[in-house]
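Hi everyone, sorry if this is the wrong subforum. Our group has a chain we'd like a structural model of before ordering constructs, and none of us has done structure prediction before. Sequence below.
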Amino acid sequence: MKLFWFLITFVLVNVSANDETIYKKEVFLTNAAIELAYAKNDLIVGDNSATNALEHVIEKIVNNTSSFQIPDFYHNFAKINVMIAVPDKTDIVGDLLSEPSQYDHLLDKCSFYQFNMQQEIRQILNLVILEGATDQDFRSLDLTTLAEQRRSLVKPALKNIIRRKLADDVQEFRGLNWTALAERRRVTGTSLGNIIRRRVSDVSELEDSLLLMCRLLGVYMSTTCPTSYVKKLLFDFINLTCTLDDGSTQKKMYKKIDGLWWQINPVNNSTVQLLEEQLL
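Answer:
Right subforum, don't worry. Here is the predicted structure as tokens:
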């Protein structure tokens, strides 16, 4: 009986070690793809021929609005976070639904998501990443070190993306015809806030805009403090706020006010700090 349990333990340990080595390999290869994308600043996207490839890849993943209307949206954020910011926090995918159904083990799922990240970069950049082109000993790699290398590249990319979104929101807000809006308010009695919402976009577009920014913030904040990475995104579609939840009592709430994104106090909704200042 002792020999039987020894053999089972030996098999489990070896399977676990093999899964970890495979996952390290996928993270290593994804880092290599990310590094290539980070260095490419002449990607042609539409009329823009000076797009950073990594920023484009991240935006493409985060802007996948098709996932906004399905029940496991929060789980999709977990996938995005482990793909981009916290590949070392594998427990983040532990509560995912059975997708992908063919992978029962945690590290198998994580390897699948890392491979997805590689595929996004390969397709956009038309890259061929040769897995056999390195003599790297994957077993000896440290996952935390690999993750820190990843974050050193994706953090500035995320910062650039968020800053562009902030600038776009300010420009959109300043482009509103305030005289016409005020007159409409006087005639109809409709609050200015509701008029602006209808003027800027319909309700679904406002919700999508909130979801997109919240995703970006969740991933970015996870790169700045990976020990307290964001686990869940919480939304209030009435007040148009999003909350980043790292599992502690110190949740961060954000809201766009007059075209500017603020961190706000969740108790009294007072402004705490401009988001732009948190990107410095």
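For your construct planning: Strands lie at 43-45, 48-51, 232-236, 241-245, 252-257, 260-264, 271-274. Residues 160-278 form one domain.
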